[in-house]
Amino acid sequence: MPDPVWIHFIQLEHVVGFKQKRRECKYCESQINNSLRAARTHFRNCDLVTSEQKKNYFGDLYEENNSNISINISDTSSPVVSTSASALVAPTNTSLVISTSSTSNKK
Fold it and tell me: What are the BED-type domain coordinates in residue numbering (predicted)?
C-alpha cells in the first residue's frame, strides 16, 4: 500500500533535465524527486499545506512550531533523552560520536 503522502502530489512524466522521476505538489506546484523522503520533507515545509492536513498525516508527531515538526521522545532509559528537528540531547555520561569517511581517486 502506498504512503498516504502521495495523495498530495501528482506523478509527472519524464521531465527534461532530470534522470529521476518527478512529482509535483498539488498545492504550490513545486517539483520534487519521486522519493518518499523528499515528499515528506516538502509536505512538512510547504506553506500552502494547512496545519490540519499536516496533523492528519504526521499524527501525534506534529507540533506546529514555526512551520516545523518537533519530535519528542521521553524514554529516559535510552542513551538519547530527547530529540527534536534541530537537536539531539544526550545524558552527560554518554558520548555521541559522528564520523564520516570519504575516498578519493588520486593518480
Answer: 1-53
DSSP the chain: ---GGGGGEEE----TT-SS-EEEETTT--EEES-HHHHHHHHHH-TTS-HHHHHHHHGGG---BTTB-------TTSS--EE-SS-EE--TT--------------
Q: Can you count the helices (H) and strands (E) in the chain?
A: 2, 5
pTM over 0.85: no
C-alpha cell at 30: 513545486
CA atoms of 102 and 15, how far apart (whole Å): 32
Which residue in the block uniquely carries the three cell numbers 501525534?
A: 60
**Within 10 Å of residue 33's Cβ, how many Cβ atoms?**
15
Q: pLDDT tens, 58-95?
A: 987 877 665 444 444 454 444 444 444 444 444 444 44
Please give the single-letter amino acid code of residue 102: S
